[in-house]
Design goal:
Elements lengths: L1 H13 L8 E4 L9 E5 L8 E9 L2 E10 L7 E7 L10 E8 L3 E8 L9 E6 L5 E6 L4 E2 L13 E9 L3 E12 L1
């Protein structure tokens, strides 16, 4: 019995080695529509249109964002975003996402306690394929949107994370099954 308790304590404190220290922020189960919101450039006069739906296929829950990104009227984005209730640990070194889509490029946008204006964010690009894949984006790969921001976002200052179709006229179609930190 003593060995069983010791093993249980070790398992709880060391975590699951198969996950390599990853922390899941969301796996889109259990009412994700209460945690994620859709935003487009229409908030600033743009004309991009889209939506996010929360679906499940073969036991995998996911967010599915579709839409048309337009550069008209100084627009150019659609996104779905999540406001963090708590920031990741200081030891976190990046974002991990499980995605698939229409073989195009997308972005993760991070907002921090230092991104005070709506057009302030940190951005990292990634490509999707038609098959599920895990993508890891180190914090030091995120580019700041202007020069007054820190060079690299601090994990403990993160306030929100967004999955974004941005910067060019195109049809967006991306599915995200998991978002987390590593």
């Amino acid at each position: 019995m003593k060995h069983l308790i010791t093993a249980a304590i070790l398992a709880l404190t060391l975590g699951n080695p198969a996950q390599g220290g990853d922390t899941v922020l969301d796996n889109f189960e259990s009412s994700p529509e209460t945690r994620w919101r859709f935003v487009s450039d229409q908030v600033m006069g743009g004309v991009s249109q889209g939506q996010v739906n929360f679906l499940s296929e073969s036991g995998t829950a996911f967010a599915h964002m579709t839409g048309t990104v337009s550069l008209e009227n100084n627009g150019g984005f659609i996104q779905f975003a999540h406001d963090l209730k708590t920031a990741p640990s200081a030891e976190s070194t990046g974002i991990t996402i499980k995605v698939r889509g229409n073989s195009q490029g997308y972005f993760v946008h991070l907002r921090t306690s230092g991104t005070l204006l709506p057009w302030h964010y940190y951005q990292a690009a990634f490509e999707v394929t038609e098959n599920w894949q895990e993508i890891r984006l180190p914090f030091d790969s995120f580019k700041k949107s202007n020069r007054i921001l820190r060079k690299v976002p601090k994990p403990t200052s993160l306030k929100s994370i967004g999955i974004v179709a941005y910067g060019r006229a195109h049809n967006a179609d991306i599915q995200v099954a998991e978002v987390g930190f590593y």
